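Follow-up to my post from last week.
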Amino acid sequence: MIKGLGVSAGISMGKTHILNEPPIDKEMRANLKHHKGSPVEEKANLDLAIEKAKTELESIISMPEQLNEIKEILQAHQMMIDDPELYQGAIDEINKGKTAFEAYESKATQFCELLDSIDDDYLRQRVHDIKDATGRVLSNLSGRSSFKLESIVEPIILIADDIPPSMAAQLSTEKILGIITNQGGETSHTAILANALGIPAILGVHDATSLLKISGLLWMDKPESLKSILIKRRWMTTWL
Amino acid sequence: MIKATVHVTNPFGLHSRISSNILKISKSAQCHMEIVYENRAYQNDSILLLLQSGIVKGSCFDVVVDGKGDLEIEKDCYKMLKNYIESFLGDII
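User reply:
Got it. Predicted complex:
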């Protein structure tokens, strides 16, 4: 039996898809360094990556029937992406010889570390917003393509370590039958959206992505209470 | 210059959405705004610095609006901020 926090009740049945976004690895980083341009070129790369990220967010914001709360969260992300302190800090690092990727990443990390030191759990969780927002710019700089929900062909139960706010904003009942994550809690954007859309969701399963390695049918039963929920893997062996 | 003290009652404090909306209001009003908390001033251009202020429920901070000589802009900006703050963040005391 697997236990997690049931944040959105409902019954769902469908095939699973495990979301595995590979991190930007050493080889990719070495490649970026190898192709480092002049500070002017690196600054231009950064500006392009930021502009692209803002446009991507704008297209998510303007999705039909997007919740107001989600629009505001993503508008905050747009502000974070080219925050003057972050941007100028990155430019200073570029002028010292770093690539746009290294410079932006190091400054973004500094801000995350400062926020992580706040003595309030909810505000500390905003680190996820900064990572999601700046991660988009870093993906654009590295050329790594992020998983897009629009690439899903048939409806699935999505299993992930965590679902960043900008991906949660793209959830739709047409494609996502249910959500299971390792992390997250009642106040996460995933929980808020899953509830609003009526998508059954179980968060904080801790080991979902490794326990549920092989795609199969998962039956997410309606929870008896929203505090904890058991996922029954009744039909997995039948389908392997 | 208009200065007001805010007592935060929002259980989640000054978080991303509220910070973003407050900054948007002051920018749209073309007015300079500052948030002063624990002897540190946060200008109206950096959401990341504002988030680091760690303003939580129960905190008190000052909001300072400066129209740089234009009293109309100053008053309008303050009015919009006041409405927003009182609706979503806390009480102006």
